[in-house]
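To close the section, here is one more complete example, presented without commentary so you can practise reading it yourself. The ligand is adenosine-5'-triphosphate.
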Amino acid sequence: MASVVVDHVSKRFALRKDRADSVGQLLARMIPGRYRRPRSEPFWALKDISFEMPPGISYGIIGSNGSGKSTLLKILTRTMIPTKGRVSVNGRVSALIELGAGFHPDFTGRENVYLNASILGIPRRVVDQKMDDIIDFADIRPFIDTPVKYYSSGMHARLGFSVATSVEPEILIVDEVLAVGDEAFQQRCMDRIFRMKRQGTSILLVSHDLGSIERLMDRALWINKGEMQFDGLPHDVVRAYREALVGEQQKGGDDTPPVPEGTVTLDEARMTARDRASEVLLSGEPAILTMKFSNHGDTSIPAHVTVKFRRPDGLDIAEVSTLHDQVKLTVEASKKTRVALSVDALWLATGQYEVDVMLHSIEGRLIAEWHQATTITIQSLERGGGVMVLPHGWQVTERG
Ligand SMILES: Nc1ncnc2c1ncn2[C@@H]1O[C@H](COP(=O)(O)OP(=O)(O)OP(=O)(O)O)[C@@H](O)[C@H]1O
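Output:
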């Protein structure tokens, strides 16, 4: 049985249309007998959404602002009732949806941990055992006995996330709240989410961080203006969503002229071992791909670089991009721009591999692509078949 079933769910809000056009109209409303009920119009924030999340499967939900993602999560956690359709959620749910939701402002952080846990049915004895971990992960020890109304939004988010993930849920539902924390904290959150996922927790994560959705989730859902646009593998959903975003940007009056062909050239692309002077790479060793671009035009071009590693038979092995990793880059006019991609380990089997390089403008237009910009040779000391070298170990235990 699926752990989450969303069955033809729609949600209608009443959108108030009672804008007063003048102070006179505003005052007139206050006169007894002249009060009119504000006019309202129905607004469907969700329209006929259906999907199923099997146990242990993690879903990322994406969509532009106001598309209905938070509304869907609120319906799943039963803080909101659907106008049509039904949801069923099987398993112990822990959710982090609104900043500080479930926190009582006058209670201290510690008291709120107990309060939250008791709502989730976690006994006090268990919370006592976990308290130190919860405080440490949230990194708020000096403030744990201070009422949460004095917490910053970052402290709220840290404590909320720490509690929600420390109670060993079967289903973890997280909205974009993580975005308020600093980058180091966001990284720790993503690491913890990933660890929980590996241990079997189903994650439902709303995020604008498309790279994390692609890396960490098993499936993705794109909600567009309240409607289900795409339910599929993260890579496919994210790609379709990105393409739509680029299309919209272009429609929205992107009048930067296309960069003429030949304006940017790739003068060099070379992959070498990071810690020794060698172009033959040992499988698993750190490596650096150095690219040198020349911009022969007289306008600097803010751009994104994408690098794709391929096997000569066309199998895509990996693709990375400054867009996904949110790295800013400008190919300066009449200059050379050096871009280095540092790779911690390429666990590839012995063989030759091809590297393609693409350059896009920030509006998403292809400026140039260099198919087989360089070739890399990998040598592996391991025997065995397959595409990759598997870092591994064996353990044999004799019994009896
Ligand atoms: N209680 C409410 N009353 C009226 N309209 C609402 C209510 N809650 C949400 N909406 C509207 O429903 C739509 C969907 O909102 P929702 O917060 O679910 O979007 P979202 O995809 O989570 O957006 P974001 O990425 O900005 O968080 C928006 O237009 C919002 O203004």
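Once you have examined the tokens, check your reading against these statements. Residues 264-379 form a domain with the Coagulation Factor XIII; Chain A, domain 1 fold (CATH 2.70.50.60). The pocket of adenosine-5'-triphosphate is lined by residues 13, 45, 63, 65-71 (CB under 6 Å).
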